Sequence to fold (504 residues):
Amino acid sequence: MKVEQLYGPKVKSFQVLELEYLLQEDSPELFFSFGLKKGGQIIVTHAPARLDIMGGVADYCGANVFEMTLDRTAIAACQAREDRNLCAITLRAGSQFKPNFHCSLDNFYTDGVLKTYQQVQDYFNQEPSTAWTSYILGGFYVLLKERKINQLPHGATIVIKSDIPIGGGVASSAAVEVATLMALNQLYNLELGAMEIARLAQIVENRIAGAPCGIMDQVTAVAGTSSKILSILCQPDKILEFVSAPLNVSFVGIHTKVRRSTSSTAYIDTRIGAFMGLAILKAAFAAEAEAASQGDNSAQKISEALANNYLCNVSVQEFHERCETLLPEQMHGEAFLEKYGETLDTATQVDRKKIYPVKSRVEHMIYENARTQQFIAAIKNAGKDPDRIQDCLREAGNLMYESNASYRDLAGLGSPEVDGLVNIARKIGEQGGIYGAKITGGGGGGTVALLCHGSVENSLTQVLAAYKLAWGIDGELISGNAVGASEFGHILWGLKESEPPTHF
Fold:
């Protein structure tokens, strides 16, 4: 197969080069009855993994989060079909995945009427070995359901190639969703903006894949850069600023190889507990504001802060002075539903039979938001005043350690292996160039983020060796930055069958 580049960046990543080689070699993984056709054009897009430096799960409560891209990527190669079939192909090795799956656009309809989100989610999750396709083919349905296109004129084949660890806490699913939607944006000439693609990708994750994540992963995958860190206000998806790391300061991730998931029970229960707390506070302050005298407007102020359903608009001081005593330590799902009805969260539902921690979950969200704002200020100050860089990094590092402890003790999302790795990093400490460490993303395993200064190769080697000695696990260092999906744009390839050699 001859591959001719018609558009896009000439400098190609290793991932793109590998895919190009497979095409040139007529790989049977790609070319089969429902796979790619040997001719026509292919759109190639890319989206990176992300490192959650601060903020984490508080994104769905409207927190300020601090995110950067990592040098791991998912690429999507999309080719239009002449029929109404959709085919997803994964090039990720592993027996847990069926390597390809196909369906028809007609599967999204019943008697000509578009199915519900729940029906489509159930359809894609019938078989565990093909559930991965919901993150990819679900994008087609979301475009229809969210009325970004009235009807899809033809099907498509999409090949996904990713070197992002699955369950590694670095947003592998968001990268796949974003890369796919970037490709569909080109395929169907939709002219969607970057933030719109991020929002649609979150809908794919929440409503099709069934994972109730916030939006920070998708925003970072779309809008991240290779040189700066994103400060995002998740109300819902405002990029406040792009922050440069101070000179000789770096952030790296160490994958603990302890799998985590945003569809896990712990993650979901933590989110539900936070939204239960939101409902309790909204009801209490609405009633108090109505009954209060004109001279006392504190209840009115908090009621207004919660009007848009973001817990993180409550300050730490307000939480301690006015909110803490109103929240139960825990609450039975049935009792909550009887008193307040369902929460305002569209991504989760309260289980009548469960008991949910409430106060601690709310406390984590509000404190994490405050920690993130203090952390960003410390990093910016470290860049402005080289004479105070050590003090600023020490302040930032302590906030990371506090965040990790809060994940474990208040959010209920820690893991022994993660805490072990964080403790190893802390023992090496600033004398080894490591100033802070914390769990990332949804918690419960995955990757640890480290704040480093200067040359830290030997220190990172020591961390990995000590982690292996303590837990018998080979941790994996993930560093460097990749451009976001929007900055990458797309590559357009033309495919032509190679002419057979001429014999004389």
